[in-house]
Write a structure and sequence with these properties.
Length: 396
C-alpha cells in the first residue's frame, strides 16, 4: 500500500475523531426538534372514491384543516411538543371495508378517529374502536343506533335521524298540507332508519303512508317502483337515501308525470343533488342535521379559510368534522395528554363554541340541543325555509 495513502487515511481518521470529540454535548443536547416531537395520529375515515366521494373528501378536508391549525399553534402535551398527523382512509361507504379501515387505525395506534361519514360504515367500525379504547367522534352520522350501543368512547356533533324524521314529517303534513305520502328508502342503515322515523312521525302528525317502496344505494332505474307509487296518487314522495340516487329518482318522477312534492333529508341537501336533478329538482325539500350556514356562528370565517386552503366549495360536513377534530384536540389539551385513556373523560365534559355552534354532549354521546333546518331548492340553490331550534318535535 502506498505510504502516502496510509498517512492520508490516518489523518482523515484523526480529523474525524477530533470533530466528534470537540462537540459531544452539542450532539446529545441539540437533537433535531422533529426527533423530539411526539406525533399524534388522528384517523379520518370517509368514502374517498365512488358516488359519495364528494362528501368524503369534503369531510376529510375539515379534519386536515383543524389539524394544520393545531400544528401552527406549536402545542405541547405532557411537556413535549406535538405534531398532529392525519391518516386518511377510504372506507368506500361500505360496512365491510369500514371494519378493515378500523383495524388499520387500531394497528397504527391512532389517538382518535373522526368519522366515519355514513351510519352504515360507522356503526360496525365503532365496535373495533370501542374494544381498542379509541375515541370516535362523528361529524355526519345520524342514525340513532350509533349512540345507542352503550359505548363511552362514541360521540356525534350533529342531530340524529329521529330528530330529522320528526321535523320533516311535521313540516310535510302541517305546513305543506300533504296527507297522502309515499316513502322510498335505499335499504342502508341511514336510509331505511330515516324513512322509518319519517313514516312513523307522518302518521303521528295525521298523514297517511299510501305506499312504501325500496331500492338500493347503487340503483339508477326507479321506473318500476315509481309506476307503482303513481297509482296511489301521492301528494308527496319522501326518499331516505343519498343524492346520487335522489337526483335521477326525481327526474324519473317528472318523466312519469308525477307532480308530487319531493322531499329528502341531509343526504339530499347538496349541490350535487341540484346538479343531478336539474330543473326537475326545483321545489324539492330537504333537511340538514344542524344549523343553516347563515346561522352557524363561525361559518363565514371557516368558509374563507376552506376556500383558500382547498380551492373549492364546502359540500356539507367539513364544518362538522373540523369541529369534531377541535373537540378531540381541546380534550387532549385539558388532559395534557394524547392518550385516550387519559383524555377520553374530558371529551364528555366538552363546552366549546364551534364553527357549527355550541358543542356539549349528552351522557350517551349525542350532541346537546341538536337542531334541524329545512330547505327548499330554488333556482338550483338550497334556501332555508325555517330557523333551526333545539326542539326536535317541531318543524324547524
Amino acid at each position: 500500500m502506498n505510504p502516502y495513502r496510509i498517512t492520508a487515511i490516518a489523518a482523515a481518521a484523526l480529523t474525524l475523531a477530533a470533530c466528534n470529540n470537540a462537540e459531544p454535548q452539542q450532539d446529545a443536547a441539540s437533537a433535531p426538534a422533529a426527533a423530539q416531537e411526539h406525533v399524534v395520529k388522528i384517523g379520518s375515515a370517509n368514502p374517498l372514491t365512488g358516488p359519495f366521494a364528494h362528501w368524503g373528501r369534503d369531510a376529510d378536508n375539515g379534519v386536515q384543516l383543524a389539524a394544520e391549525e393545531a400544528n401552527a399553534e406549536k402545542l405541547t402535551l405532557d411537556g413535549k411538543p406535538v405534531r398532529f398527523e392525519v391518516i386518511s382512509e377510504d372506507d368506500q361507504a361500505d360496512p365491510k371495508v369500514a371494519t378493515q379501515v378500523a383495524q388499520r387505525f387500531v394497528d397504527a395506534g391512532v389517538a382518535a378517529v373522526i368519522g366515519h361519514l355514513t351510519s352504515g360504515a360507522a356503526i360496525p367500525a365503532s365496535r373495533l374502536y370501542n374494544d381498542a379504547g379509541i375515541t370516535m367522534i362523528a361529524g355526519s352520522v345520524t342514525s340513532p343506533k350509533f349512540t345507542e350501543q352503550g359505548y363511552n368512547n362514541t360521540f356525534r356533533i350533529i342531530a340524529n335521524d329521529l330528530q330529522q324524521g320528526q321535523a320533516l314529517a311535521k313540516y310535510a303534513v302541517t305546513e305543506l298540507k300533504s296527507k297522502r305520502i309515499a316513502v322510498i328508502d335505499d335499504r342502508t342503515t341511514y336510509g331505511q332508519g330515516l324513512a322509518d322515523d319519517f313514516a312513523k312521525a307522518t302518521e303521528a302528525a295525521g298523514g297517511t303512508i299510501v305506499k312504501r317502496e325500496y331500492t338500493t344505494n347503487s340503483a339508477t332505474d326507479f321506473m318500476a317502483i315509481l309506476t307503482s307509487i303513481k297509482a296511489e296518487k301521492p301528494e308527496l314522495i319522501f326518499y331516505g337515501g343519498m343524492d346520487a340516487q335522489a337526483g335521477p329518482l326525481v327526474k324519473q318522477m317528472r318523466k312519469l308525470g308525477i307532480q308530487a312534492v319531493f322531499m329528502g333529508a341531509d343526504g339530499v341537501n347538496t349541490a350535487e343533488f341540484a346538479k343531478l336533478a336539474g330543473k326537475d329538482g326545483e321545489g324539492a325539500y330537504a333537511s340538514s342535521a344542524g344549523a343553516s350556514k347563515e346561522l352557524m356562528p363561525g361559518y363565514a370565517a371557516f368558509n374563507t379559510k376552506y376556500k383558500a386552503r382547498f380551492n373549492g366549495e364546502i359540500q356539507a360536513y367539513a364544518p362538522y368534522t373540523y369541529d369534531a377534530t377541535r373537540v378531540v384536540i381541546d380534550a387532549m389539551k385539558r388532559a395534557n395528554s394524547a392518550d385516550p385513556k387519559k383524555y377520553l373523560a374530558e371529551v364528555g365534559k366538552t363546552s366549546l363554541q364551534g364553527v357549527t355552534g355550541p358543542i356539549a354532549f349528552e351522557s350517551n354521546g349525542d350532541i346537546k340541543n341538536g337542531t334541524v333546518t329545512l330547505y327548499r331548492l330554488e333556482g338550483g340553490k338550497w334556501a332555508g325555509v325555517a330557523k333551526p331550534a333545539g326542539d326536535a318535535s317541531a318543524a324547524q
